[in-house]
Automatic annotation (TrEMBL):
It is found in: Cytoplasm. GO terms for cellular component: ribosome. Belongs to the methyltransferase superfamily. PrmA family. This is Ribosomal protein L11 methyltransferase. It comes from Ferrimonas pelagia. GO terms for molecular function: methyltransferase activity. GO terms for biological process: methylation.
Length: 293
């Protein structure tokens, strides 16, 4: 497939707005590049990982007429006074393989490694999760996923039940099983996430220990010893009673996908049911965790 790349020079203050606008205008993907052309992978709403002068790169199908796109971008207040950009045709590449080249094995905590399914595990005797995320979120490269993986590695999950709320690629659910959990339920609103989770569970030889559901299909009254929800602050706020009800009395909960400035509001909400530990922070992101009273 042929592509057109639109590259705009931006500042830390304008990059997020430009990125959002490019997606609204039909970009298939948006990447932030620093002055040395180093890509920022897996950006999420609210995330800014910039190094001063920043280029925002939108990738469009080659059939897209770029003139209206350029005109719409010129209407942005952030670009009204100065808009430096370059439009270029890209050679036809296997972009999935290009991404695969940059996904490497990563260690979390003492025992746990997340390994791309197409690479060899660096420590065969460690707790290795073989992962192919497909179209679902969750590779371990994002701080919110890393915070949750490290938390799971620090728990004694032997014979425990676990719910992964918003399971995505299944990375947290499968890690919990590999770390000793007896059975795990994965919940997600995206059918593609359930497919990715099931495929990755089979790849890791744990498919019999993972059951996945869309919310409308999940059994009533599910409760677990451990619940992890790596989503975003809005759903964590709105679904607080639902998520909290999934945790058994005395059970453990971890919440991530929230920025540092969102932590206190979420702490106040979940503090109604949980004794929460100090906030764990990585970059702009954080994790709340605690025990249900």
């Amino acid at each position: 497939m042929a592509w057109i790349q639109l590259r705009l020079n931006a500042t830390a203050e304008s990059a997020d707005t430009i990125s959002d606008t490019l997606m609204e205008l039909g970009a298939a993907s948006v990447t932030f590049l620093d002055a040395q052309d180093t890509p920022v992978f897996e950006p999420l709403p609210g995330e800014t990982r910039l190094w001063g002068d920043t280029d925002v790169v939108g990738l469009f199908d080659a059939i897209v007429d770029m003139k209206p796109v350029i005109e719409q971008l010129k209407q942005l207040p952030e670009l009204a006074n100065q808009m430096t950009y370059k439009v270029e045709a890209l050679e036809d590449k296997d972009w999935e393989r290009e991404w695969m080249e940059n996904f490497h094995p990563m260690q979390f905590g003492r025992r746990l490694w997340i390994c791309p399914s197409w690479r060899e595990a660096p420590e065969p005797d460690a707790v290795n999760v073989l992962l192919d995320p497909g179209l679902a979120f969750g590779t371990g490269t994002h701080p919110t996923t890393a915070l949750c993986l490290t938390w799971l590695d620090g728990l004694d999950l032997s014979a425990k039940s676990v719910v992964d709320f918003g399971c995505g690629s299944g990375i947290l659910a499968i890690a919990a099983i590999k770390l000793g959990a007896a059975d795990v339920v994965g919940l997600d609103i995206d059918p593609q996430a359930l497919t990715a989770s099931a495929d990755n569970a089979e790849r890791n030889g744990v498919k019999d220990q993972l059951t996945v559901y869309l919310p409308k299909d999940q059994p009533d009254n599910i409760q677990a010893d451990v619940v992890v929800a790596n989503i975003l602050a809005g759903p964590l706020r709105e679904l607080a009673p639902v998520i909290s009800a999934l945790v058994k009395q005395g059970g453990q909960l971890a919440l991530s996908g929230l920025l540092q400035e969102q932590a206190e509001e979420l702490r106040a909400i979940y503090g109604q049911w949980f004794d929460l530990n100090p906030t764990a922070i990585e970059g702009d992101w954080c994790r709340l965790d605690g025990t249900k009273r």
